[in-house]
Amino acid sequence: VPPRLLKHSVEELRAGILAGNRALLARALRVVEEFPEQGAALSTALQNHVGRARIIGFTGNPGAGKSTVVNAYITHLRQQGLKVAVLAIDPSSPFSGGALLGDRIRMNEHFADNHVYIRSMATRGQLGGLSRATFDATRVLDAAGFDVVVIETVGVGQDEIDIAQMAHTTVVVMVPGLGDDIQSIKAGLLEIADVFLINKSDLPGTPQLEKSLHTLLSLASPAPLWTPPIVKSTATEHKGIPQLHEAVQKHRDHMLTKEGAALSQKRSLHIFQQLLDQALVSHGRQLLHTHLPQSLAQLSAPNSDIRAVLDNLLFYLKN
Ligand SMILES: Nc1nc2c(ncn2[C@@H]2O[C@H](COP(=O)(O)OP(=O)(O)OP(=O)(O)O)[C@@H](O)[C@H]2O)c(=O)[nH]1
Ligand SMILES: [Mg+2]
């Protein structure tokens, strides 16, 4: 049965996205999420219409206030007339769509705004699927004319790090009071942060956390090409958001320099490798698909040699 979602051709979706048709945009994003091949084809078909949007990642621990920050940031960007799309990445849930967009996302005040588009994103848990889907979804939103695409991810798992690399600028959201000494700051965060945001700076521990971050950054060796600024916010009161915006702009300016170009090249390579991994997995699965029943039969024999069964199957990849 051809899924209902696929009733629109890639060309129809493309035309709809470019014409600003919201219903087709939503449909396109679901296609991207659920059907990797069609999603990739759409992404390719949009090539001449991407590259305008600024992509900004927000990552940090659950409950750090990422969505509250993003909500306040949207308000700030809207005041400058910019159109904003948000992808809230949900690695834990196999389903997406409107239902998840309850208070978890905390951007309700923008739902009626035509120039704001908010969506949560998930995939059916294939390896690398989430970063592939995020990459293509970002391109769809870029082509749809949004000036800024925000990607919100939780935590610092490999998926999140991969996704953070897709952003032009990644903001790591931290909070005071969870142990503000140097040891408690995860090393992985330093690697992906272009800007540090200490949110909930109304809570105790803020000066200590700020000091620890400064110390950590000054210890980096060799001296990095870019030292992430540290900004403080109280997102619930929309405080610190203009300063956050300024830091993001400063990073953008830096990326336009020669050193920045080297950083972007590294990022492109990283994304390329992720997409390659994902393509190899799905291609390999497809190639082996018809031979799987045979392997399963071999496995069900008593004392089956799992490695030998695997070798038998992989034989078909090499031929
Ligand atoms: N005191 C204080 N609370 C805040 C601030 N910003 C957010 N919060 C609260 O922190 C809680 C979590 O906020 P969210 O924006 O949902 O955090 P999140 O990081 O998006 O959470 P997940 O998406 O579930 O990981 C909410 O109760 C917010 O009201 C702040 O600046 N100060
Ligand atoms: Mg959130």
Strand and helix layout:
Blueprint: H1 10-18, H2 22-34, H3 36-45, E1 54-60, H4 66-79, E2 84-89, E3 116-121, H5 129-143, E4 148-154, H6 158-164, E5 169-174, H7 187-192, E6 195-198, H8 206-219, E7 230-232, H9 241-255, H10 258-288, H11 292-299, H12 306-318
Parallel strand pairs: 1-4, 1-5, 2-3, 2-4, 5-6, 6-7
Largest sheet: 7 strands, parallel
The SS-based structural class is alpha/beta
Counting DSSP E segments of at least 2 residues, the number of strands comes to 7
Low-confidence stretches: 94-103
- The sequence of SSEs as H and E is HHHEHEEHEHEHEHEHHHH
Task: Count the DSSP helices.
Answer: 12
- What hetero molecules are bound to the protein chains? guanosine-5'-triphosphate, magnesium ion
Strand order of the largest sheet: 3-2-4-1-5-6-7
Q: On the 0-100 scale, what is the average pLDDT?
A: 88
Instruction: Give the radius of gyration.
Output: 22 Å
User: What is the global morphology?
Assistant: globular
Query: Strand percentage, roughly?
Result: 5-15%
Which percent bin holds the helix content? 40-55%
Distance between the termini: 32 Å
